[in-house]
Amino acid sequence: MKRRYVQFATVLILAAAIAGLLSQLVLGGSDRVKIGNGAVSVLARVSKAEDSLPQRVLAYPFAARNFASTTGEGSRLLHVEGTLRLYAVPGKEGMLCLIEVDDAAATAGGSCADRRILLTGAIFMADRQEDGSALVVGLVGDGHTYAEAEGRRVPVESNAFVLPGVDGSSVTVGSSTAAQTIDLGG
After folding, report:
1. How many helices and strands in the chain, by DSSP H and E?
2. Under DSSP, is residue 94 helix (H, G, I), strand (E, B) or coil?
C-alpha cells in the first residue's frame, strides 16, 4: 500500500513539472518580462462626461463585436493631443480595447486584446503617416512609465502613450526596473 502512495506522489510531481514546463513553452513566460500587475487604474476613476465615446464610434460593427456594453459603458478618455483622442473601453470576455479618434481626419480605429497582455506589453496601433513613418499609440498597464522608439522616449500618462514619427519596426515599453520590446509587425 505504501508503494502505491509513493508511485502516486511521483506521478503527481512529474505531472506538475510537465504542466509547468508546457505552460512556459506554450504561454511564452520565460522570454517576456512582467512590468507592473496588469491593472489599468484609469478605468477605476470616476467617470466624467468627456469619457463617453463618440456616438459614431458606438455605431461601428467593431463596437458591437468587441465592447462589453453597447453604450461603451466604462470607457475612459486616456489622452488628448490636438484632435487625437485615445480611449480605453472594457471589452467582452476579459478583453480591453484601445480606441483612437481623430476629429480632424474624421477617422476612428480600435484594437482589443486580452488584459493579460498588459503584464508584458501593450495594446497598440501603428498608423502609417504621409511621410512613411508611423504614429504609434498604446494602452499599457499600471507600472509602465515610458514608451521609446529610436532613442526618443515619451512618458506614459493615464495608462497611455503617443509616439509620433516612428520609422522602425519596434517600440519598447517599460519602467525603471524592466522593459519589453514590442514588434509593430510592419
Report:
1. 3, 11
2. helix
pLDDT for 20-68, tens place per residue?
Answer: 333 333 344 446 788 878 899 999 999 999 999 999 999 999 999 999 9
The model scores a pTM over 0.85: no
- Is 82 exposed, middle or buried, given 0-12, 13-18 or 19+ CB atoms closer than 10 A? exposed
Rounded-to-5 percentages of helix, strand, coil across the chain = 30, 40, 35
Determine phi and psi for 58, rounding to 5 degrees. -65, -25
**Torsion sign across C-alpha atoms 154, 160, 164, 168:** positive
State CA 61 to chain mean position distance. 21
Q: Mention every residue, 6+ apart, whose C-beta is less than 8 A from residue 168.
A: 149, 150, 184
| Tens-place pLDDT, residues 81-101 | 999 999 999 999 999 999 999
Phi, psi dihedral angles at 146 (to 5 degrees) = -155, 160
Task: State which H helix or E strand residue 146 sits in.
Answer: strand 146-149
Domain boundaries, the chain: 1-31, 32-183
50 grid coordinates = 468627456
Give tens-digit pLDDT for 134-178: 999 999 999 999 999 999 999 999 999 999 999 999 999 999 999
